[in-house]
Design brief:
It is built from 15 helices and 20 strands. The chain is α/β, with parallel strands linked by helices and 478 residues long. Helix 3 packs across helix 4, helix 10 runs parallel beside helix 14 and helix 12 packs across helix 15. It binds ligand BES, manganese (II) ion and zinc ion. Zinc ion binds next to strand 10.
Length: 478
Amino acid sequence: MLTIQYKTKFSADAHFLVIAANIEAALAANTLPVELKNYLKAELEQPNTNAVTTNYLGRIASVLIVDESKELYVLKEQARQHGASVADLVNQVKGTELEITNVSNATSLALAAAEGAALVSYQFLHHKPSAKNAASLTTITVVHSNTSAKEVERLSTVVEATYLARHLVNEPVNCLNASDLAAAFQKMGKQAGFSVEVWNKTKIKQKKMGGLLAVNAGSVDEPTFSIMHYKPKNAKNKKPYVLVGKGVVYDTGGLSLKPTPNSMDSMKCDMAGAAAVGGAMFAIAKAKLPVHVIALVPATDNRPGFNAFAPGDIITMMDGSTVEMLNSDAEGRMILADALHYAKQFKPELTIDLATLTGAAAAAIGQYGIVGMGTATETQKQALKVSGHNVYERIAEFPFWEEYDELMKSDIADQKNIGGPYGGAITAGKFLAKFTDYPYFHLDIAGPAFVAAKDSYRGKGGTGVGVRLLFDFFANLY
Ligand code: BES
Ligand code: MN
Ligand code: ZN
């Protein structure tokens, strides 16, 4: 992990980024060589230019001019992306330190740029330690910028949590099975200060988690159910918030096998929801937020081996209801249903699940946002959407009309596990809502969880989507 720190003084020679509302303010902000100053000024005076980045004698120098009349969330995203592009250059010249300062009135832009710079420097090199192009950046320094050391520390925690989530998503199933995922949570709990209880297959059987066991039936590896608990003494909420993450460590589709080629290649990412809630718990606990939060992760791989559950099977779920299982590739809802039922005993203020649940969600809005829906109160939904904009993990709310419930009806069981060809993201959410009796919001992250090509600071591969969203939501609750 790189270090993000706060200072009140500029270095004379560090790689730097200045954010300002106009050219004069930008160039007054630092003691720069006259030659460099003149160059930056001339470039910024070109028409339609709001940013310039140059390599001045080996030193990366960048200025971003922001239009303060724009909405803050737009400016923050601009700063993140610009911070990321500057960090890319610093890494290219093998630089180790980047200083960021902001003299505009939009005070959060220095942190946003630092966030982009830090997140773009993540690399998954666990299995390629010899890589020659490893990111060299070790320190990002926020200078002045009306920022406090505490805010910088929080940012650092959230970045660390996002790195952890990305790492879990990027690990393939032969290195991270359901037990490994649970063990990773235990380690994160020790480090950040939350408790983790892990159920093994025997316990899961005792508890009759029929959905989780059905999906696991075709696997050699045991399922796990992780219960993470964070309850600080100063918790402000009486009823806990519950997070649920889909932990399918690999999704082959089971007997309803996904067609090869390509459709399975990135299915190690099917535990991205689990990684997001684990990462969020890490950040929440490490930042000591005054909230009582519980996170639940049912985990297994989905394979066609042994007694794999077969289309046509009728499964009795943990809540005693029955499901006519007509497609083993609709496995996520089977394991999430048991976790959502288990959550009832906590009488949650709100339960939020994160899941790479449907190709339909990805098909509808692509990788640029999260599909959300549910029975949460309007106030809760609004708060989540505001956080979505704050961190630019935007939530597009889908309808949750009762007509969709019809599509899940079965003649021989309480529900089917698939709807028709239309509204697939919604029918999946409707299936899940049947297992809740509390305010509930479902976040389908199938689009943004894993990206095939580098997308600015989101990187390539696991993006860690959901970690920053959840942290922002809880940090702004009280
Ligand atoms: N894990 C997949 C959804 C997915 C697709 C995630 C693409 C990330 C990228 C999920 O388990 C799945 O297979 N869903 C099916 C449901 C269908 C059978 C009702 C789908 O979307 O095709
Ligand atoms: Mn599937
Ligand atoms: Zn899946």
